[in-house]
């Protein structure tokens, strides 16, 4: 799977490609990652890529000519590459979308805007999809593109240590992941749950399901509206609620 990032700051993006999981996936040839400097396609003496907006207003807008040429170059060897514009106006990115990209394995070209954004004519002539990673504004789309590349890459076969590590992720089954503990078993007068030391895999699995449901209920109850509770999940939550009621009465 190929990821291409169109940016005015290629060194910033390249440092991301050269570290951690992404670097290992590149070495295994599971993915390929390149950055393209939009400024290389500015065919004027000063390599200007931005200009003042028509109609007035603050800030600068990335010009259409260099960006158009950069996108065409990025798609030269893979014409079916999907062009993604990173923008706070786009569709919110989520785990479902990450899986969609990972399963299709289609090459992705990310346009990372700066300043006030890009000329709208590029948007409706070349962009296949607009994506946002949240309702906030950053100085550019590079970090947002990295977020998507990271979340998609880890879902590809043979990138992580095992399939189970992906299967238990938060949001994977519509629930938050259960709590994790490691050695030592006691830290600053805080002990890990006894069941995790029991060696009883059935009890451990039940504890993990309960932990996942409790976390989801307390932190992201909205997830329960997206995926209905199974009967055994309802029973676990009801039991927990009864325990809370008894605790409150004391």
Q: In summary, what is this structure?
A:
The chain is 41% helix and 16% strand. It contains ten helices and nine strands.
Describe the structure.
- This protein folds into 2 domains: about 150 residues, SPOUT methyltransferase, trefoil knot domain (Alpha/beta knot, 3-Layer(aba) Sandwich), CATH 3.40.1280.10; about 60 residues, Trp Operon Repressor, Chain A, CATH 1.10.1270.
- The chain starts with a strand and ends with a helix.
- α4 crosses α6 and α8 crosses α10.
- The relative contact order is 0.12.
- It contains 10 helices and 9 strands.
- With about 250 residues, it is of the alpha/beta class.
- Strands 2-1-6-5-7 form a 5-stranded parallel beta sheet, with helices on both faces. The chain has a two-stranded antiparallel sheet with strand order 3-4. A two-stranded antiparallel sheet has the order 8-9.
Describe the structure using short key phrases:
Alpha/beta knot; alpha/beta; 250 residues; 5-stranded parallel sheet
Oligomer: single chain
Q: Evaluate the radius of gyration.
A: 23 Å
Helicity, as a percent range: 40-55%
Distance between the termini: 58 Å
The helix count comes to: 10
Q: What is the makeup of the main sheet?
A: 5 strands, parallel
Number of domains: 2
Mean pLDDT level? 93
CATH topological fold name of the largest domain: Alpha/beta knot
Poorly predicted residue ranges: none
- Net shape: elongated
**Could you say which structural class the secondary elements and strand pairing correspond to?**
alpha/beta
With strands numbered from the N-terminus, the spatial order across the biggest sheet is 2-1-6-5-7
CATH class of the largest domain: Alpha Beta
Query: Beta-sheet strand percentage?
Result: 15-25%
């Amino acid at each position: 799977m190929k990821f291409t990032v169109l940016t005015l700051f290629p060194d910033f993006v390249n440092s991301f490609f050269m570290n951690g999981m992404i670097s290992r996936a590149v070495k295994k040839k599971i993915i390929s990652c390149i950055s393209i400097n939009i400024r290389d396609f500015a065919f004027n003496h000063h390599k200007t890529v931005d200009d003042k907006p028509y109609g007035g207003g603050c800030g600068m807008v990335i010009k259409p000519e260099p960006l158009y040429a950069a996108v065409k170059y990025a798609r030269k060897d893979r014409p079916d590459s999907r062009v993604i514009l990173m923008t706070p106006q786009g569709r919110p990115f989520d785990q479902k979308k990450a899986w969609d990209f990972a399963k299709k394995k289609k090459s992705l070209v990310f346009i990372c805007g700066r300043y006030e954004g890009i000329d709208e004519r590029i948007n409706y002539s070349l962009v296949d999809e607009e994506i946002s990673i949240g309702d906030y504004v950053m100085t550019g789309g590079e970090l947002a593109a990295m977020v998507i590349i990271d979340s998609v890459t880890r879902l590809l076969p043979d990138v992580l240590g095992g399939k189970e590590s992906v299967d238990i992720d938060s949001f994977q089954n519509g629930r938050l992941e259960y709590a994790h503990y490691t050695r030592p078993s006691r830290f600053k007068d805080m002990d890990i749950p006894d069941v995790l030391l029991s060696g009883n895999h059935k009890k451990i699995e039940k504890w993990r399901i309960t932990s996942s449901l409790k976390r989801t209920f307390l932190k992201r109850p909205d997830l329960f509206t997206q995926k209905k509770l199974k009967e055994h999940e309802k029973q676990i939550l009801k039991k927990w609620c009864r325990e809370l009621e008894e605790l409150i009465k004391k």
